[in-house]
Amino acid sequence: MKGNNTLPKELNTGEGKNRYKYKPFNALVESLKIDVSYRSDKNQEEPEGLGSFFHDSLESWKEFNLSTHFAIFVREVSQYCQSLPQILYHKEDIVRILEDHLKVKNSHALEPLLDLVTKLARDLEIEFYPYFERIISVIIPLTKRQDVKTLECTFNCIAYLFKYLFNQIIADLSRTYGLIAPLLGEDSQKPYIRRFAAEAFAFLLRNTRGEKLTDIINHIFDLFNEYPTDTYRDGLNMLFYETAQDTDNKLHDGALNLMRELLNKSCRDSSTCSNIESIYSYRVTTSTTIALVHHVKSENFGILWNFYLDELENLQNILLDETDFANISQESLTKIGINLSLVYICLTVRKGSRIKGNFKRIFNIMRNITQYALIKNPSHGYLFFQRQYFKTCVSLITLTGMNGFLTGGKYILDKIFDHDDTDCVLVFAHNVANLRWEHYEKIILPYIVKYSSTHWEENPKKITLFLANLLSTKNLSIPPGTISSFITKNGLIKFPNAKSKNQNITDGLLRILNQNCDWASEINILNQVDLETVDMQPPHLTLVSAALTVISRVFIPFSEVFNSLSTCIKSLAEFLKSTNSTTLSAFSNGPFTHSSPYVLMQNLLGQVIDTLASICRLTSETGDMEKLVKLWDLIIDEILLAYGTNHVVLRGVAGYLDLLRSSKKNDHLFNTKNLEKIYPHLKCNLSSFIHQRRLYSLQILAIFDQFPLNASESSQIDQEFCDIFSIGLKFEQIETAMNTSRNKTILLRNLSSLISTKRVPEFYSEVAPLHCFGVLTINFSDLWSDAIQVLAKFAELYPKKFWILIYNEFTRFNDGTKLEQTGLSETAIQFYFKEDQLFSKSVFRTGGISFECPNLLKYNKANEESQNLIFDKFVNGCIRHYISVSVLFDHLNYYGLLIKTLIEVPHIAEQHSHQLVPLFLQFTDSKYNSVNDNMMDIDSAGSKSNMVLFLKLFAKFKNPRALHKSAELKDIYLRFLTNGDIKMQTLALNCLLTWKHKGIVAYEENLKNFVDEAKFRDELSTFSLCRENGSIGFEHRDE
């Protein structure tokens, strides 16, 4: 039967010469539709006289199905079906025969047998119903068959039985549902089985009305609650969607009855469960609504949209009629919340395209219920209603644009930002920001500025964290030149002056910086924190970081903020300087940091320096630059030289130096003497896998005066300065992408050309190879070959220095801590990215039905992130501003690229075999099971590729006998010949051939044929090991 899985389904109208195009099993299954409600039986002729549909169909199938099994069936049943009266009389025998033959395994007669079942039901009508359950129980096991035609016939048979016995089945629909429920997912079923079962049973459900519909809905969820699973819930989603939808992307006449019952069921269940979103009936209702929004055309969807609005208006009128707010029941508000969630789905799925442009009615409803949603400290029942209200407001405002704002959005925004519940307002504002609404800066930002100013005294910590998150992301962009009463010409926010200093935001931010802090206790708090903790009070370190973020984007005169920032810099520098190995060991196992618990303090120090430079650049006046110059010794000699591997410190120092360099008065600070002092502390950053570390290090080094190139006879310029730092800086400043790869490779070739001139001063001799090592860590293969060529060129000119540098890179793999350069622990980084991936799931689709929407996921993710802003998990609040862009580093790939570099210069690698061979043996011992095993088994694909590269390198050596531990190497090569991998055998053979044994070289071609799949058979048939007339000479047998 497997051949039926690729039957031609349609003519090929695309490319290719074949007349038909064939589809795989999954494609054929997706194209099937099990729905008999719209199929007409009029084309089938009525039997004449006392004839029957069963007999006519049997006679027809005799000609179309010639299988042995069907012939046996015909012989058994023919004596009972010559006329309709005879069928009525022998119905028990006919049903028994059908049952027996449907149970035959691997039958080729299933299609006619299933068709005859439906014909018998059509003939017998009400007389067939007593046998209905018996027949269904025999047919259902056939759904496990992996044959498309059988599946189609099976479910069509079930659907036709439902159609012909509708009047009998509808009297007790729950019994029939009990039979079909396993196919919907009560048992583990594949998606297409659930879909076919849903399509079949939907015929019965869409024609059920009144109390019977209520009863069957209750019965369906009662059965589901006994064994609730995700697959079963998906089956119910399909069932209710198929029930509500009609042909040509329309809604069925019974769709509103069904959705009303589902809505009522959700409301009833909500009275017994506090967590509304976990109620299965509610989740099924929302999923069904999502599917209908997806697949019903906008001109037909208005019926459902108006139904939801009618329900909301009825509930709204109940609220408005109640004069005493205390008398409003939580049940009423929960019902409104459930209806609002469905309205939110209609507005959000497909960006509200199913709703025609008239939003006036929903805006009026939202206006009327606003007063009930804006309650401070609501109870749990109110909380669900309140959250749905805010989510609907966000969807309305962002999707309707400026017209919606003018229609009714302004009134809603005014009321929201008059609300005293700071948490709700900040969540709403941040939610809209996460969606990157194009009118955010014009409409929402003025509300935020005013609200933050008026509520600062009540909740300064949360407002600080909120503003920091808002201003540190790309969600808010205020370009210089923005015209606004609260925006300066430089794009800084101006908060209005408050009556008292306690209400002034700028003064409050400075108070956070000026507050005395025991940094050691802060480290202790970080060391004991639980990453999963919610509602934890933010430590002072987090508040200082947030305040710095806000200060850098707020208008504060430099003269007012300089003392606070400089004091903070000195305090942090003194604390870090006072730490020693004793205190380090006491906190070395914290959940946030790796190897040093003080990395977050270093990050904070770098942020303070960066903020100081940023404010001075935008708000400084004459004479303010001299204040920065006085900090030179502290920032350069004490901070940069001590913590120059921290990318946040590097960023702050780069901004500080760039600002000083802009004034010619400070040129004396950027002489080559200071460059010589700084470079040894920063050169290790050039090979870092962290892009920011390479970028800011090169930016700092390129700011200083440079040494001239060595003199050249061909050069006509008296003095040319070496621009090797500038080349590297340009390379790092260009984004790594396909459309920019050519520009980056040109810069690498410029670097190679500069090295080839031999004019690079000794001071810069290590810059090019170190930076190329850094390039090899970039996850972009187009750059690797050019970087390797630069390293090969350098190796030809400076072989000793090249070997020292590349050997140091290899030794980094001996100590894992040298590869972990972020400073943050792996646990913290993984937790951070796990939080970011909560909503990054694929959209569930089956049979063309989608129960999710990318835009809806986007809005839900924005809302969830905004909720976590206020009830923030500690890890995000602490490392959000410090985590580097690239924290993932493919160690094995980098190791392989280093070996590829040596392959370009094998003579240098061979000269240093005393260091290289131990590296190879160590790699073999760690990545393979054991060098002493008879079989060299590989434990990963990355290890195998690197072993291949090692063997390619050794195959290029000229004098293998002189290698360090050559006997061990030879033994490893011989063991690789026993490996089943032909590629590894070939490389091992090439390595052995470098020994040039006379007894082996003479048979080089024969040996290579043995490891060649194309020539192996021929060589094996001709090569002889016979001592008398064999292919191996007697003098060569010992070798």
TrEMBL record:
Q: GO terms for CC?
A: 90S preribosome; small-subunit processome
| Domain of life of the organism encoding this protein | Eukaryota
Q: Which positions fall inside the U3 small nucleolar RNA-associated protein 20 N-terminal domain? A: 944-1039
Pfam families tied to this protein: UTP20_N
Name of protein:
2782_t:CDS:1
